[in-house]
Amino acid sequence: MIITIRSQADSTERSQLIALLGRIIDSNHPITTTKIAGREVIVIEHKSLEAQAAIEQQPAVERVMQVKTAYKLVSRAFQAENTSIIVGTEHNCTPVTVGGASVPPVIIAGPCAVENREQLLSTAQGVADAGAHILRGGAFKPRTSPYQFQGLGVEGLHLLAEARQLTGLPVITEVMEPELVGIVAEHADILQIGSRNMQNFPLLRAAGRDSHKRPVMLKRGLSATIDEWLLAAEYIVAAGNPNVILCERGIRSYDSQTRNVLDLSCVPLLHELTHLPVIVDPSHATGRRELVPTMSRASIAAGAEGLIIEVHPDPNSAMCDGRQSITPQQLQKIVRDARVMAEVMQEEDEITRVA
Ligand code: PEP
Ligand code: MN
To answer: Could you give all domains of the chain from N- to C-terminal order, each with its CATH number?
Structure first.
């Protein structure tokens, strides 16, 4: 159940509530208070109506809500309206809204990995000129082999900050270790938690607790179910950071023609289950640059609030994921198409509402 605390509750009333909760639930289970949309909430696993009645009697309590799913705070049942997240409020860049009624859809683009200054700055300029809103670039790279390029690390973060200064675009980059959340959050405007780390629970908690409270883009695990993915998002929110963006990037299957299988049905499904924004990564989902334009349009048609696309000035010489990378010129058309597709869908929605 989700317990919302009255904003005027005093410390005695709060302690009284915590003491009651301590008696109701297993005492080994920590009781944590999370702030969401300006409201303090406590989530407990308990379901009994008797307990609910006792909690509702508490002067510190505004309301108690039973949510049937295992994930609570990210569920549509808890919050009916879409979460909209403002990205890039610091670092002198142009803020961008992700989710809510954001039209046009948000386009995130850039190289898989930050390779060097020239490659990053020229890609960043190309991405900005193409009309994208946020720059991506991996400084810490999760690579399948320990002998592959692992990213420039902190130097890559500094280059991303320089690219942001040049273009005004907020930047997103991956963080792989809880200990590095602080430094990555200092330089980046969005933290990316990659597929391989979707269930790295210490990392999820660290991203939730970090004092910068940077929005987190949580990619779907290589073979994660939707419930596992939403529970991973719940970890971040429960740790105190409500700004989570879900990113579908394809799931493992048996066919090697594409790198992964893009599960577009998850987009409308997630919109039923959660209030969090959903974006799609057609680059990692397909692994083939020729499929990226079509699957970008399809993602927007499925209702995605944005796209994240790998772009490189010379894809064939990219140090990482060149086969799925497109050029800034090719990105231009995708940005235009995404806008047109979203406008068509909005008009359709209006016509259906009026009819
Ligand atoms: C990436 O975005 O470059 C990346 C490594 O993605 P994923 O975690 O989806 O494989
Ligand atoms: Mn990549």
So the answer is: 2-65 (3.30.70), 84-354 (3.20.20.70)
Categorize the per-residue pLDDT at 102 as very low, low, confident or very high, splitting at 50, 70 and 90.
low
Which residue among 284, 286, 323 has the greatest number of ligand 1 atoms within 8 angstroms of its CB, and so is best to mutate? 284
Is the CB of residue 296 below 6 angstroms from any atom belonging to ligand 1?
no
Is residue 351's pLDDT more than 70? yes
CB-count exposure of residue 111 (10 Å: 0-12, 13-18, 19+): buried
Residues in the chain: 355
pTM of the model: 0.96
Give the phi and the psi of residue 53 in degrees, each rounded to 5.
-60, -40
Task: Compute φ and ψ for 35, nearest 5 degrees.
Answer: -100, 125
CA dist 352 and 347 (Å) reads 9
262 and 307 in contact (C-beta within 8 Å)?
no
Beta carbons of 249 and 195 less than 8 angstroms apart: yes
Cα 336 to averaged position of ligand 1 atoms, centre (Å): 24
> Ligand 1: which atom is nearest the Cα of residue 196?
8
Residue 45 pLDDT level (bands cut at 50, 70, 90): confident
